[in-house]
Structure formats: C-alpha cells, structure tokens
Amino acid sequence: MQSNTTAPARVGPPPEHTTAGAAVQLVRVHHRLGEVEVLGGIDLAVAHGETVALVGPSGCGKSTLLELVCGLQAPSAGRVDTEPAALLPQRDALLPWADALDNAALPLRLQGAGRGEARGTAAPLLAELGLEGFERARPHELSGGMRQRVAVARALLTGRGLLCLDEPFSALDAITRADTHRWLAGVLAAEPRTVLLVTHDVEEALVLADRVCVLSHRPARIVTELPIPGTRPRDPAADELVALRRAALEALRGC
Length: 255
Prior knowledge:
Blueprint: E1 24-33, E2 36-46, E3 51-55, H1 62-69, E4 77-82, E5 85-88, H2 100-110, H3 115-128, H4 144-157, E6 162-166, H5 174-190, E7 194-198, H6 202-208, E8 211-215, E9 222-227, H7 239-253
Parallel strand pairs: 3-7, 3-8, 5-6, 6-7
Antiparallel strand pairs: 1-2, 1-4, 8-9
C-alpha cells in the first residue's frame, strides 16, 4: 500500500453541507430497544470538518448512535440534526455478485454515472488502498481486510460530507492499518469531511480524531471528552498521546 498521503486522489463529488450550525447536533438523545435503555441522554455537537472518535465498553450503544445519526433509526427522545451521512458498518455489506471495482463505484452509479465513468473514478482509489490487481475479484475472493478497504472506498465515493465509520479498520493487520490511517488523514486534509469514528482501539482514536468521547455502560452517556492536539495522523508514541491514552483508559475503567 502507498503510504504517501501528500496528493490523494479525489474521492468523490464535493461534500454536501448544511447551511449553518454543526454538522452533527445531538440534544438529550435517549434510545430504547424494547425494554433495554441503550442511550441515556447524549449531548454531542460535531463541527464541520471535525473527526470525533467514540469509544466505550462493548455493547454500550456506539453503533446504535451511528444509526441514529444516519437516520436508520429514530431516537426514543431528544433531537438529532445532521447533514447527509454515509455509513460504513462493521460488516462490509458488499454485493456478492459484483467485483471489487463495481462495489466501490456503486455510489457513483446510483448518482447517474455510467459504468465506465464510475469504474474509472473508483480505480485510482482502490489502487491507493493497495487493491490494484484485485479490481475484478468478487468479495468471496478477497480477504476480510481487503473487503473492508473496498467498503471504505465505497463510503468515500458517496461524496457525503459526513462519514460514520463503525470499526472500519478492525480486520486489517497492524502494518496495513497504519498505512490506511496515513492515507485517510491525507484524504481528509485534501478534502475535509466530518467523521464520526466508532472504535475499540483507543490508540486508533488518538491517531485519527480531533476529539475522543468516552461512553459509559448502558444506558450510555458521554463521561469524558478528550481534545487531541496536533495534525493527523499522529505518532502514538508521542508523550502527549501517551498521557491521553492513559486518561482514556482510566475513564473506560471507571465506566
């Protein structure tokens, strides 16, 4: 995979934006699934172009929160205001009958582009993600990490101004994950998007995000917010990040 992020390929149409205010605004958001209270009053504002990471105990409602932001569920109480979002779920949800290039290019086809045009736009992005030579492979012929990279490309090619990423790099090995972090940081520097990133990896959150929000056990609330200095992607060994990692882990243990 290429690790040079100085000039990433353009990955889609210009991002859409709301006319005013934050890209994401959650006000006293509660949510129940049957008898289970999942979210217990979430207040969160995310500025345009900001990357916010959500970390918390397994099953605390992080993925549910992303689904509310993307409009896939409605909150039981409270208000959710967002700009149009693209969701990258934990499972890649690739079309099994389509090859990698057609899967990545799907948003462009849905926007009216012809197949050749869409594939031509998507191909450089797959190459940057280390998938050159696998454009014609079907999902079952790809490793889990390769499938997830196709899904990342598809989310970026929607052109949406808000990306909701649910554990997007969990299937990648350590070296590929670090390269993907650098590549994504380059894309966001060249074409700013607003990003909500759910991850169990505190270090990943500190490397990629501008701010980390620590959620409690169900019903989830934001118990700590940690602003992160410096330019993305950051060196996880930097003294400031080591201290922030310790603070985030202490907050998680206190949940």
